[in-house]
Amino acid sequence: MAGLMLVAVLLLPVSAFATSRIKDIADFEGVRDNQLVGYGLVVGLNGTGDDLKKSVFTRESLIGMLERLGVNARDTKLDTKNVAAVMVTAALPPFGRQGTRIDIQIAALGDANSLQGGTLLVTPLLGADSEVYAVAQGPVAIGGYTASGDASTVTKGVPTSGRIANGAIIEREVGFAMNSMQNVKITLRNPDLTTAQRVADAINGYLSLDAARPLDPTTVQVTIPPTFNGDTVALLTKIEQLPVEPDEVAKVVIDENNGVIVMGANVRISTVAIAQGNLTIRVTETPQVSQPNAFSNTGTTTTVPRTNIQVDEQNGQKLAVVPAGVTLQELVNGLNALGIGPRDMISILQSIKAAGALQADIEVR
């Protein structure tokens, strides 16, 4: 049954998988996140916080916080490990309204061992303009732990980082009047001239007028028609659902560290002959001990070397000819027929590119 289902999937028309909605391949102007960052203190740690003698910034922050609360600790010798300095990060969602809660991430800044059981004190979160957009506070939840004894320590995950669900409240909104816009820019996530033109054609075809035009491989500008003046949201709601067939460049992405190869469907090669083989020499030493006969007065015990050398030239690997204009599947089948692994395939693809026979870009990471 599973085999029949697989065959049915493979027999579906290619066009069923080729189109995507505009909202899945592009972003609309003004609809974006904004990064926030803040510096705060986590308290209530069970002796796993910062060493105040080493982490001077934690000590000064603790003294400053106490002074704001009316406690003079400047001349006191502080010696606690229940406090940790942390960096707090969050993403301000598009059109986030005042009073809305957002999630925050927390990471230790000093030499704390764990943030388990800690509580973040009130921490302002700043945007790129140094203005406060949210305020964070709450108990920290971590995804790891540390257990130690006199002879061993067990650590799971990263106990020095955590998160607080709905841990920050938005205090300032990012002003953006979308409904009053006369032009809207659509930004493609994968820049491409053909895809940009297809997006513009799809929008113009839906509106039955020349309202969209590509400005560059990344941007498509849409002029708001008179019928949608003051109601840009309704127009964008209809536009984002339009199907478009994205185009892509022929590219081979290679990750040499992990031996991963990803090839696009448009990869083509010219006629080329490929041969792959490795010379393997295996040397095995099996020394044997030679002893004289019993009660012999002249013989001595010696070690006699025994060496076995095996040479594998992989003569079974022959030259394979890959014809011009083969598809991606045929190229993969041809390389697999040589019986090679991913790392050898990386070298072969790079050699084909060097020979000028690979009609694609190679991106090595």
From TrEMBL:
The keyword Signal applies. Residues 1-18 form the signal peptide. GO terms for molecular function: structural molecule activity. It comes from the Bacteria. Its main location: other. GO terms for cellular component: bacterial-type flagellum basal body, distal rod, P ring; outer membrane-bounded periplasmic space. One of its GO terms (biological process) is bacterial-type flagellum-dependent cell motility. It is found in: Bacterial flagellum basal body. Keywords: Bacterial flagellum, Cell projection, Cilium, Flagellum, Periplasm, Signal. HAMAP family: FlgI. Belongs to the FlgI family. The basal body constitutes a major portion of the flagellar organelle and consists of four rings (L,P,S, and M) mounted on a central rod. This is Flagellar P-ring protein. It comes from Hypericibacter terrae.
